[in-house]
Amino acid sequence: MLPDRGVAGVRPDRADLVADLRALGVPAGDLVVHVSLRRVGPPAGGPRTLLEALREIAGPDATIVVPTHTAHNSTTSPAFRAATRGMDGPRLARYLDTMPGFTADMPSSGMGAFAEHVRLSPGAVRSGHPQTSFAAVGPRAAELTEVHDLDCHLGERSPVGALYRRGAHELMIGCDWERCTGLHLAEERVARPRRKTYTCFVEKAGERVTEHFLGIDHDDTDFAALGAALDRTGIARRGPVGRAGALLTPLRGAVDFAVRWLTDNRQWMEAET
């Protein structure tokens, strides 16, 4: 990752962020964005300032998309395993009783202040997946979030697939390839990917119900190596945004390369039956 830069305590303003995004080469058009706002500065005016800067650079026809994933309503998430490690039966039962069902207005889990700001912005639309939802603002917000099938966390029938088809770019600010959702789309495209059963809670008609579904067993443990290989292709651009290092990549190019890399380098593909 590009090292963070700048002077501690100095908060970048909108003009600073616009200049940085322009220097990075952020084009006009749709963007899926991942942000560690703490690393950015945070900017004067908070996440609103960064969203304004992104919309200025990406243009009036662009839609800005952010992950608004939720792990705290799932019993198969790493977050659940970490939270319940060491619990005895009665304590675990009490914990399960307190877990919420997913609703469209449920806060995201660990996605950061910028993602929450976008989710709560006027006109924002959120996809309906109870685990890996996305929120979007802009003229194609409804179109990009309309389809998000339960068995398709980050694949063709999700906002990630829609963004790929739109020719969007992916921007990571203060984070690196490990946050790139396009690489998860690549996982969905490899031949015979490993699958697993997921369980989560969803609120329906005022009642919490349990959903079980089969999906790709997503795994980001080799994304650092995959990202290093992507960097060597020259497909991505790196530079500072505020005090943070940032990474910009065309989604199509990153996904297409990642499919080939995963096919050649991952060993967990299911055998043909």
Automatic annotation (TrEMBL):
Catalyzed reactions: a 2-deoxystreptamine antibiotic + acetyl-CoA = an N(3)-acetyl-2-deoxystreptamine antibiotic + CoA + H(+)
Class in the EC hierarchy, top level: transferase
Name the InterPro entries on file: Amioglycoside_AcTrfase, Antibiotic_NAT-like
What would be an example GO MF term here? aminoglycoside 3-N-acetyltransferase activity
Highest taxon of the source? Bacteria
Kindly state which keywords UniProt assigns to this record, in alphabetical order.
Acyltransferase, Antibiotic resistance, Transferase
Q: What is its EC number?
A: 2.3.1.-
GO biological process assignments: response to antibiotic
Q: Which PANTHER family match?
A: AMINOGLYCOSIDE N3-ACETYLTRANSFERASE, SPBETA PROPHAGE-DERIVED AMINOGLYCOSIDE N(3')-ACETYLTRANSFERASE-LIKE PROTEIN YOKD
Family, according to the entry, reads as follows: Belongs to the antibiotic N-acetyltransferase family.
Identification of the protein by name: Aminoglycoside N(3)-acetyltransferase
User: Which species is this UniProt entry from?
Assistant: Actinoplanes italicus
Organism classification: Bacteria, Bacillati, Actinomycetota, Actinomycetes, Micromonosporales
